[in-house]
Amino acid sequence: MGTIRNGGNGAFSGKAGSFIGSSWRDINYMRGIPKISKKPKTLKQLEQQAKFAAAVKFIQPVKDLLNVGFGGQKPGKASGYNLALKHVLENAISGTYPDLSIDYTKAQFAKGSLAAPLGSAVLAEAGEFLLSWSPDLNPFNAFIDDEATVLIYDPVSNIYMSGPIGILRVDGEMTISIPSAYLGNTVHVYMFFMSRQGKLSNSAYVGESVVV
C-alpha cells in the first residue's frame, strides 16, 4: 500500500483499473484490488477466521466505548477498537479450533494510568446486582471524583448493559437494575474508572453472576 502526496488535482479517490484510492485519518493512500484465491483454506487460516469472527462478535456492540477505552494507547496510529480487538485475539480466546470460546476473565475494555478497581465483587439479588469495590484514594492516581463505568455482558443475547452514571470511586458500591428478560442467564461484569480530565484506569473483571 502506498501513500499519496496531493498534486495540483488533489488526491485520487475511488477505483481505477486494478487500484483503489482512499484516505484514513487524513492520510491518502492507494492499494491494489486483492485477487480472489481459489485455493482451499488451510486449517491455520480457518482457525484465524474463526478467532476473528468470535472476537468481533464479542466487542462490536461496544465499539464506541472501546474507541474511548483504548483511545489513549497509540494516538494517531490505530483506533481504540482495533487495539481492543488485537487484545482479544492475543489474550482472550481459548480452546482449539473448531471449539473456540472467549475467555471472559481476560477481556479488557479500557487501559490507562488511573488506579484500577480493587476488591471488586458482585452480589445478585432479585432483579438487581449490588456491585462493590475498595473506595481507597491516593493523591497520585485514585481520586475522589473518578467516575465508575460498569459493563454487564450477556453471552446468550450478545448484549451489554451498563450501570448508572454519576457513581464515584469514593462511593464504593452501586446497585444496577437487571431486566427480567435476562432471568437465569449467566452474565459477566467489568468495571473501570474515568477521571474528570478523561484519564482512564485498566478495566477489571469483577466476575460472573446468574441473574435472579
Number of beta strands = 13
Give the averaged pLDDT, no decimals: 91
User: What is the helix/strand order?
Assistant: EEEEHHHEEEEEEEEE
Sheet with most strands: strand arrangement: 1-4-3-2
Provide the low-confidence segments as ranges.
Answer: none
At CATH level 2, the architecture of the largest domain is Sandwich
Structure description:
The protein is of the alpha+beta class. It folds into 3 domains: 10-39, no CATH class; 43-106, no CATH class; 121-210, Sandwich (Immunoglobulin-like). Helix content is 17%, strand content 32%. The protein contains 3 helices and 13 strands, in the order E-E-E-E-H-H-H-E-E-E-E-E-E-E-E-E. The chain has helices at residues 43-59, 63-69, 80-91; strands at residues 2-3, 14-16, 19-24, 27-32, 93-96, 99-102, 121-125, 128-132, 147-154, 159-162, 173-177, 186-194, 204-210. The strands form 4 sheets. It has a 4-stranded antiparallel beta sheet, with no helix packed on it. A 4-stranded antiparallel beta sheet has the order 10-9-12-13, with no helix packed on it. Strands 7-8-11 form a 3-stranded antiparallel beta sheet, with no helix packed on it. Helix 2 (63-69) packs across helix 3. The longest helix is centred in the N-terminal third of the chain and has 17 residues, at 43-59.
